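re: ur question from the group chat, yeah i did fold both. here u go
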Amino acid sequence: MNQQNRKQLSATCQCGKVRFEASGPPILTGACFCTSCQEAGRRFEQLASAPPVLDPDSGTGYILVRKDRVQCVSGQEHLQEHRLKPDSPTRRVIAVCCNSAMFLDVTKGHWLSMYRNRFAADPPPLEMRMMTKQRRAGVELADDIPNYSGHSGKFMLKLLAAWMAMGFRRPEIAWFGPKAPTSS
């Protein structure tokens, strides 16, 4: 079966207390090199016993899924939101039981960007690299998949197609505990 057409994806935290399931194919899979993803990755990796977030090339691998097709099936009491800035519309959620980064939520969006390294069982392959102009100095990227300096038209079209299929709804995600203090 083609990995892109899977019916179900499962993501777990490092210790196994938190588990998510997503049905249907992902919107897309990609690695983001923006400065915010790199900063968040560095912060999360400094937490006690935290698993890696950043790939060796400084990118952050994501599997984008529709919010209406993902659910937390166990451990929601261990989830905690983090924001780089108090007023940021982007929140990242970790499982505090083992400090595993689980997903990024653009709160006004219709999708979740699930951290690809939380899908232990053969995650779908990367389709693209985005925001590569912000990658760490000295990083040379392979040409095995498209490398976009920003967000590509293909990226935006896939998000739009998913939103259209959802009837232009934006489901709210509220399965996590208290907010973490924001550090400046």
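okk and heres the other one u asked abt
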Amino acid sequence: MPDCLELPRPWELLRTTGWNLAESFGLPLASYVVAAWLWGRDAGVLAMLAAIWITAGLRKVLTGSVPSLLTIALIVLTVQAVVAVATGNLWIFLLHFPLANLALCIVFARTARGSSPIAAELAGEVIGLRYPKKHESKLHGFFQGVTWFWAADFLLLAVILGVLLAFVPVGIYVPIWLVTTIVLIGAGIAVSVLWLRSTLREHGIKFQFAPPADDQA
């Protein structure tokens, strides 16, 4: 364990983060697109559901646990798939975009006041953030605050997507949803990084990249 806050080296950080995002969202989305193109929307939804459950199952077998981000995606996509296939209604299917963000808002808000804010857990799992126990109390306030921030960010995204769904034609809703989501999530990441940087300076916590794998060996 490092004596200061430590992140993987840039290439390793990109690989780790990319892999977590790919297995939680990229693979299910790709499965949906391919299956929907070949056999229709319901097949795409079922393929998406199968992809996320198989990924979670493999994670459990190979590592003994399922990452928080993958668990969140599993719950959200399962609810989406069941309701979408059961109703067969395109508008109801699209309604799950704002509802999914509302669910994420609730998940983040429920953990924000506790001893284990979900932002801290995700920071360790998704980007490989590490720090010694002596810094836990100093960083706890940051992780609580940033968890509340992401709850608010998901709530804002849910409201915007809900309003757009009510007034924007269904045919152009998905592209607008994609752009809106990328912009708000990207802005949230930028704010979180700047907030962490300010917290480290405030408490005098040093930052470093992890040593190369050869050095660790």
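fwiw on the second one: Strands lie at 5-7, 207-209. The chain has a mean pLDDT of 82. idk if thats what u expected
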